[in-house]
Amino acid sequence: MDGTSPISDKPLPRHIAVIMDGNGRWAHARGKPRTAGHRQGAEAVRRVVERVGELGVPYLTVFGFSAENWKRPASEIEDLMWLLRRYLQSEVAELHKNDVRFQVIGDRSRLTHDLQRLLADSEASTAGNGRLTFTLALNYGGRQDIVEAARRLAREVAAGTLDPEAIDAERFGGALSTAGMPDPDMLIRTSGEQRISNFLLWQCAYAEMVFLDKLWPDMGKDDVSRAVAEYQRRERRYGAAVGSR
Ligand code: IPE
Ligand code: IPE
Ligand code: MG
Q: Which HAMAP family does the record cross-reference, listed alphabetically (predicted)?
């Protein structure tokens, strides 16, 4: 990075969560089909993964397809799945070269078998990498994640292997799909929308929210650095009095 980097010596986030948004509007503004926006959006993912790795942030989780996105036209869903396949085919070798671990959260059972196989292969081939863990949330919903965790714990209780009184926030977090990862320190959403859209509901309890007016396909490496610099300027209090930490 050059001398113009906005990053300070304050702590970096350990985990950045991203809601990429605005692909459709980007395409619409150019008189193009929504797919064109998604295609450029995939390029933006590439840039963001790269910059997050360069900054030395160890966890990045990107919302790729929500449990609610099935409401979109079948043709758009097909395009998105096609792009995902192409992204994995062209990008996993590069991720591996850069010591990036790729993994998926969400209910993948609704994806096609060949895509499920490709996801599993991509996870397996990068499982030993340690510089950055890049998690893609597919057919993911925060509420579904919480419900699934409750079911998992309830099964243990029913089996007699878990005392209900032993369930605390840490135990519950360990039953979520993000078990083993630190909670996101910051959540970035592009396109000017200011909502969480059922992303990592439990995990973002104390995430710093950074909303950018840019549309996702316009997201550049410097935008990532600027968002991280914005995070560094925030005072995180976790309920304590101002200035007490
Ligand atoms: C984000 O862009 C990509 C996905 C949700 C997969 P959108 O497709 O939501 O773009 P807008 O919000 O319609 O502009
Ligand atoms: C959230 O974006 C889902 C993903 C980024 C994958 P949406 O565009 O689907 O969210 P809403 O509908 O505007 O809340
Ligand atoms: Mg959107």
A: ISPT (MF_01139)
